[in-house]
Fold:
Amino acid sequence: MSGSRNEFPFEPGTELMADRARSREAVEACLRSLRAGVLPDSAERQRVDFKEEAGRRGVAGSLLPGVSENTKAADQLADEVAAMANTPGGGALIIGVEDRSGDLLGTDLDIEWLRQQIYRRVEVAPEIQEHIEQGIRLLVIYTAEAREPVDDTSGRIRWRVGAASMPVDRGEWWARRQDRSGWDPMARLTSFTIDDIKPEALAVARDYLARRDASDDAQADLAAAATADMLKRIGVLSVDGYLTEAGALLFCPAPRAWLTWTRLDVEGGDILAFDSEYEGLSLLEQIERVEALLDAANDRITLPGEFSERALRQLPTRSAREAVLNGVVHRDWNLQEPTTATWVEADASLTVLSPGGFVGGISSENVLTQRYSRYPALADASRALGLVDKQGVGVDRMYREMVSLGHRPPLLVEEPGPRVRVRLAGGQPLLPIIRLTSKIQPAARQRDVQIALIVHTLLRYPFTTVQRMAKVLQRTVDEANEALEIAHRCVVDGHPLITPLKNVWTLSKEARQIVGGQTTDRKMLHRQRVLWFVAPGAEEASEIVSQWFEVQDRITSGDYSKLTSMTPAGARGALDRLVQEELLIRGEAAGRNAHYLPPVFANRASASSSDSR
Structure:
């Protein structure tokens, strides 16, 4: 038997492992060249790049002392990581080496801080390793090849050509991607050309592109570009003039409806409108039609003058769009049934059912943190057109926009079929919650989904634990603890947004006052279980104490006062009433150590005392 031609045995992920091994070999080869006093040649530099840390030069080019956190360097390296991720096979960056001379300069950047900063900028979390070379600390950043194009911080797509990073359009990137294993069927070329495209679909595409953020200079002229140029730049037309499957799906006539729209008066009630006659329309035209119907159903609500945004929709517009478009872009296209969008008038709710279950390790428990595209080429083209947000941003925005208006978080579940159901329930926004959100400082935290979910939780529970927030935020306990600390550093009207209480967290007294300070607001909020624990009645008092005993073995009047915003005397009276109702017993300590215990604890203590006698 002849010897194997493959250097690596096959197993799932072999290609990635082989690429990483080649990058490590290339890094070692480049460092050997530097030790010998020779700069690596361009072939070696295709996979490896040297980078001097940005921001390290002072007057007359003098080298400044290194620091552990350097945002200029993070900006620089995020762009270079994006270019490496776009390069077939990925590659590595060696940080702390002067690019032209090969001089070793070193770096003091903190590895974990740098990885997080790069991820925040380009949504790539590379492997970073420390390497000591000739006594000097370097960092080596290993970047795997991306499944879809990665925009840098300026919205450009670049990849490595020899020793430099050069611009590349989406079409060329996907053409190269086809030559590598694991490619996306939506990137496959069809026999369809520009002549097969519906003019109406092109008009819809140009309209979407024209509505994109005007600050996106990289795409500013795309809406007015020649048809072939526009299609190539969004990655759906090859240099030979053939459409990809994603391009044909978006722009060519469809044999059936890929989307349907239903409008009901109440859940399970009468059909007010039904639209499914989409045969012969391109997917883009079908999306535009459903968006127009959704816009007509989603009524505007005028806010009082104290708010800068005078009018809102019953459902946040971008959240509703994201729900529909995610149901189209990420559905299973091997199934022929349509994605359905249903609007219920009485509830101002939208339900989207998309064929195919969750994939790529995504579930209802991790949709905020897990990222995966079933069809990367279709998802990338949709983002390039401005249909959907950058991967990972849309779902976050849905959660943030919904809870910041006082609505329930989105429901995303997998059902038998399989299919994915997304439900958004809107209606009248809760103005006191909008008021609180608008006062959060720094202002950037008003757009932070984790802050929004922490506030949402603490408006509905007298306190929260790190463990509960880890589940709500879909993060680890350590990450949830970090998010709570960040929320604690946020302020409203000069006071902390949240405050610690023993081993739990509560919404601060000042934040509660902003939301429930007015009697009319308080009654309306209580009906919706918002701040129901502030100045509670007897039934609510029992529930608060019961929740507290899930995390503590005793409660004091001081604890109860902070949980309910009652005065210390009022809190003591409320606990004494629970004693009279035999829902609590007084502990044996008095004075500053006075406390109350649950009856079951007292029974156990009594039984233990009897046994000892």
Q: What stands out?
A: The CA atoms of residues 89 and 130 lie 22 Å apart. The chain has 22 helices and 21 strands. Confidence is low (pLDDT under 50) at residues 1-14, 602-613. The longest helix spans residues 14-35.
